[in-house]
Amino acid sequence: MGVKLVGGRKRISLLNVPVDIVSEDQLEDVISDLLLDKGRHQIVFLTLRGLLKARGNSEYAETVRKASLIIPISKRIQKGAKFLGRTEPVRYMPFDFAIKLLGILEKHHHSLYLAGLKPAELQITTNNLRDSFPGIGIVGRYAGYFKKEAEENMVLAIKKASPSLLFVGNGVPGRSNWFSRNMKNLNPGLFLWCGNCFDIFSGKKRKMSKKSWESGSFAVWDVLRKPWKIIMIFPHIYYLLLLLIFKIRKL
Q: How many CB atoms lie within 10 A of CB 207?
């Protein structure tokens, strides 16, 4: 895929999209090796919709292909890999992964920069993370929803702070693509976008229960609350058709 793999993990290809297999036991070694590598390493949470989008020639597809760590968060991705005879990847809940990542950073005395949200929400997030992970040095923060001309100032502030992890939430244009657009102007480190994580840290949303996440029942309740989301069944059908096509080609 043209990306250097570190940490002894395995990378599979699912529908021609890279997916990493990282067990919880491996995670600390993988993160530590990425930081020791002194490179610019983006971590991507891969949804089913994201996987389908990453099959094309979009900016997001390029972001995924260049990412150093691609973490599946969809049960469909797990099942699809198993159906095609690939090694089944480990699925993470984004918030839990973020907590594990921050715990690793704290253990090894690394630093953190936060970007996104509105100023008051970002302040709450900063305070909560400082209380929860006192061993992490929070070396800066930058509120989101800024004017385009302020983006250069944000990049410069992050570069000067040179954090081990640049953690970004909603309010920064481009979401995961923001990193690939600005990577060359940033110092080495880890980069992660997770809008839902910031919403939980700031108190805007409640954390989903582990039971709901594992069972997938949250998706049913989401459709009941927002009926228009029933249209998401079509990407699932398309995904199943692609799996069948790939399976038949292998026979």
A: 15
Distance CA 87, CA 10 (A): 9
Distance of CA 115 to the CA centre of its chain: 15
Find out whether 159 and 185 touch, Cβ atoms under 8 Å.
Answer: yes
What is the three-state SS of 69-86? EEEECCHHHHHHHHHCCC
- In the chain, DSSP assigns E strands to 10-14, 17-21, 40-46, 69-72, 111-115, 137-142, 165-168, 189-193
| CB contact set of 130 (below 8 Å; sequence gap of 6+) | 136, 138
User: CA 7, CA 32: separation in Å to the nearest integer?
Assistant: 8
For 15, residues 6+ apart whose C-beta sits below 8 A from its C-beta are: 51, 52, 55, 80, 242, 243, 246
pTM value? Answer: 0.91
Question: In the CATH hierarchy, which top-level class contains the domain 10-201?
Answer: alpha beta
Angle at 109 between CA 188 and CA 164, to 5 degrees: 15
Give me the residue spans of the domains in the chain.
10-201
pLDDT in tens, 134-179: 999 999 999 999 999 999 999 999 999 999 999 999 999 999 999 9
